[in-house]
């Protein structure tokens, strides 16, 4: 008999315009492939994107869309809730959700992201009949904490610090009511178990599709670097600027090394970067990062701000691109420091290592191949399906 599942999420999940939405879609694709009877409720908060298209809609027994209303900034300052939750809390959403679960018996209810934990007040009414599963994208407390710890702006540091306190209180309080919690990496799973006492944690790895054509490693250029991402998110932009403003950044250009920065960004910021930094080409939004990964020999992961495993690590690995990261950017996972990637404690040392490796890039081939094997074997839809099935086994 097919299991009945309700999926509660924060926006149209089929846009795939960010790492979070790609990860959400991965999990939905896994649930759909397991042939569950699937209902979904979400906000219409992607103004420039279509809602679920007809092909996707056919996969759901019932779809409920709630109008999204942006909160005034004053709410973020005075609310005792974390900022990302403040913007989503809605009586209308809970009202429509309550109607959905009325007279329904779901086997499993998935709550996607901390943004939607406010729905727990409604979902606890379904708990006698349903197992509640929380899908994490990060340990959100650690994300806020790192944003406070490394931010140079005193104002932003204070803002993120108070938000991290709210977030830890909120996470601890709400996750205690869930029957199981998911994590994107071993680091997050360990934190949920040790800090919050969560007994049932499953690792749901993102899915990255293999490249459509065989990679020609002879076309890889170690003197071409890539940083990929969405630079319209302020912390991502700050990470990039810290790398660009490293004291020895100019040494890259002096040694004939070019940097490509590919991904969404404000056009004015793109022009400013291209005019200010020698040897740098920032693209702005592009249809695909694949052509850039095919040519660039080294991928930089400069995430000093933020926390949690990065989808960009897997994208680099499956593109057979060498991975160089700042300490803390790649948290504990099945990618291992020194075996699969290079890690340095500050940007200056990272840049020095990039210059050093130019002399013998062939020495990096084992790391590239080892990371590639992990990406093609453990970040697949088949692997995710097995992870979902394992987590949903309750005595």
| CATH architecture identity of the largest domain | 3-Layer(aba) Sandwich
Query: Pairing-aware structural class of the strands and helices?
Result: alpha/beta
The CATH class of the largest domain, by name, is Alpha Beta
Quantity of strands, as a count? 13
What overall geometry do the principal axes of the alpha carbons give?
A: globular
Calculate the terminal CA-CA distance, rounded to whole Å: 18 Å
Instruction: Count the DSSP helices.
Output: 17
- Biggest sheet: strand arrangement: 3-2-1-4-5-6-7
Residue ranges: pLDDT <50 for 5 or more in a row?
none
Model description:
With about 400 residues, this protein is α/β, with parallel strands linked by helices. It folds into 2 domains: about 5-205 and about 380-390, 3-Layer(aba) Sandwich (Rossmann fold); about 215-380, Rossmann fold. Helices cover about 40% and strands about 15% of the residues. It contains 17 helices and 13 strands. It has helices at about 20-35, 55, 75-80, 85, 90-100, 120-125, 140-150, 155-175, 185-195, 235-245, 250-255, 265-275, 290-295, 310-320, 345-355, 365-380, 380-390, and strands spanning about 5-10, 35-45, 60-65, 110, 130-135, 180-185, 200-205, 220-230, 260, 280-285, 295-300, 320-325, 340-345. Strands 3-2-1-4-5-6-7 form a 7-stranded parallel beta sheet, with helices on both faces. β9, α12 and β10 (about 280-285) form a beta-alpha-beta unit. The mean pLDDT is about 90.
What is the structure about, briefly put?
By secondary structure, this protein is an alpha/beta fold.
